[in-house]
Amino acid sequence: MIANHHKNLATFIHLSTFSRFVIPFGNFIGPILLWAANKEKSDFVDQHGKQAINFQISILLYAIIIGTISVPFFIFKLFDGMSVFDFRGFNNFHINIGEPSPLLYIGGGLGVLAVIAFIIELALIVKASLTARDGKLYKYPLTINFLK
Q1: Torsion angle of alpha carbons 148, 142, 12, 40, nearest 10°?
Q2: What transmembrane ranges does the database entry give (predicted)?
Q3: From CA 16, how far away is CA 52, in angstroms rounded?
Q4: What is the pLDDT of residues 4-15, one digit of tens each?
Q5: DSSP states of the chain
Q6: Above 80 in pLDDT, residue 79?
Q7: 8 A C-beta contact, residue 45 and residue 39
Q8: Residue/partner pairs of 95-102 with CB below 8 Å, 24 or more apart
């Protein structure tokens, strides 16, 4: 049987990822501190800590990939009419909003995908917290296991 204290620790490990809204990189610092201080006390806390940290690292990796793919589409659209070798290109620089390009649609679609992924991430963190509170193990979907 899992003690209430260990259930609470596992729940707070998951909920500590929300500290990123207050502290930069709080989604890594909070779970790592709680997990490192309590991983020897319970295998239950250890498993939930690893899951929370692996999920946050995976989310960071996915965000970097989406950003790396989508940002060039906006940059290419922004500097569409400018020549690299013509230094006078800034004289005629303007953004024409009336003619959206397919590049802008692709970049915007990836941006919408990022927003949807953020909402799903928040829902998964809440679900993991509730599962930990109930004394069950939770595995985040699409998580790369960096810590085993």
Answers
A1: -10
A2: 18-38, 59-79, 103-126
A3: 9
A4: 999 999 999 999
A5: ---HHHHHHHHHHHHGGGGGGTSTTHHHHHHHHHHHHHTTT-HHHHHHHHHHHHHHHHHHHHHHHHHHHHHHHHHHHHTTT--SS-GGGGGG----TTS--HHHHHHHHHHHHHHHHHHHHHHHHHHHHHHHHTT-----TT---S--
A6: no
A7: yes
A8: 101/77
Overall size of the chain counted in residues:
148
Tell me which residue has tokens 């290419």: 76
d(CA 92, CA 123): 47
Write down the residue that tokens 């890594």 correspond to: 28
Cα–Cα dist 109/127, whole Å = 27
Q: Report yes or no: 54 and 128 within 8 Å, Cβ to Cβ.
A: no
Residue 104 has pLDDT above 60, yes or no: yes
Q: Which CA distances in Å does 58 have to 27, 34, 41, 121?
A: 12, 19, 26, 11
